[in-house]
Write a structure and sequence with these properties.
It comes from Larimichthys crocea (Large yellow croaker). This is RNase H type-1 domain-containing protein. GO terms for molecular function: nucleic acid binding. The chain is about 40% helix and about 20% strand. The protein has about 270 residues and is α+β, with helices and mostly antiparallel strands. It is globular. The strands form four sheets. A four-stranded antiparallel sheet has the order 1-2-3-6, with no helix packed on it. A three-stranded parallel sheet has the order 7-11-12. A three-stranded antiparallel sheet has the order 8-9-10, with helices on both faces.
Length: about 270
């Protein structure tokens, strides 16, 4: 490649030229083609974590200071902004993640894993409960007692079992992009963007973001009008006899669901 650039008259920086090698540094990130990993030095993780900790103590800062978290040097950002509780919750999320992350991230698979490929089915019945099925394992539960204090939103009901499934089984989805189907367009949009204007929904989305980062998977939601899946539908409505007929090889007992406090990040 070096000779090709030389023949084309393209100048190369000697101090920035490496290889051939199976491991090289690019923009401060070490890329390894053997282990298929990208990694950050521990000192960079500690530096970023310290920056976030400083912002958590501040009430106001300039846009330029905030952009320093992205190592950005954008001019004309001298206006002061208020660090709201919502923005600090985002900072707390990443501060928490960095405190346990080893700096290593796997390269993700190129293809999207569809629900039928791994037998992952999730459903919510706002009037009854929620359920999920994954490769023989399953859960079925009534809505937590904390739900009545939340807005009566079908979007929250639709997102909640997705978070439960991610907490229970996300450790088996490393390096994968997992597709899920929903007939709730708002839930699809929120899951894919990773954010919502609703503070009530954001406490759930932050937990989903954290679990996805910890186990290194991506969830991509697709809108399918009137989408139904019989297995998860029977679980969300506690039709266990029907469920056993549809999934006779499933585990005899359900997987316990995490408490409500473990499904939010606030």
């Amino acid at each position: 490649m070096v000779s090709a650039f030389t023949n084309l008259g393209v100048p190369l920086s000697a101090e920035k030229t490496e290889g051939p090698s199976t491991s090289l540094e690019f923009l401060g990130i070490t890329l390894d083609s053997i282990s298929l990993q990208a990694s950050l030095p521990i000192e960079k993780i500690h530096h970023t974590s310290l920056l976030i900790a400083n912002f958590l103590l501040a009430h106001r800062c300039t846009k330029r200071q905030l952009f320093s978290l992205l190592a950005t040097s954008t001019p004309n950002l001298h206006d002061h902004i208020t660090l709201t509780e919502a923005s600090k919750m985002e900072l707390k999320l990443w501060h928490h993640f960095l405190s346990t992350w080893n700096g290593i991230s796997f390269f993700y698979d190129d293809h999207i894993t569809k629900p039928e490929d791994i037998q992952l089915f999730i459903d919510a019945a706002p009037s009854a409960g929620f359920g999920g099925f994954y490769a023989g394992k399953w859960f079925a539960a009534a809505w937590p007692r904390e739900f009545p204090s939340l807005p009566n939103s079908s979007t929250i009901h639709e997102i909640y079992p997705v978070i439960i499934a991610a907490i229970l089984w996300g450790h088996e989805w490393s390096k994968k992009t997992i597709a899920i189907y929903s007939d709730n367009s708002a839930a699809v949009d929120i899951i894919n963007k990773g954010r919502s204007h609703s503070l009530d929904i954001m406490q759930f989305i932050r937990r989903l973001t954290l679990v996805s980062a910890q186990h290194q998977f991506i969830i991509r939601a697709s809108y399918i009008p009137g989408h139904k899946n019989a297995i998860a539908d029977s679980l969300s409505r506690f039709s266990l006899q029907k469920f056993k007929l549809l999934a006779p090889d499933s585990d005899p007992l359900p997987t316990p669901t995490p408490p409500y406090s473990a499904t939010i990040f606030n």
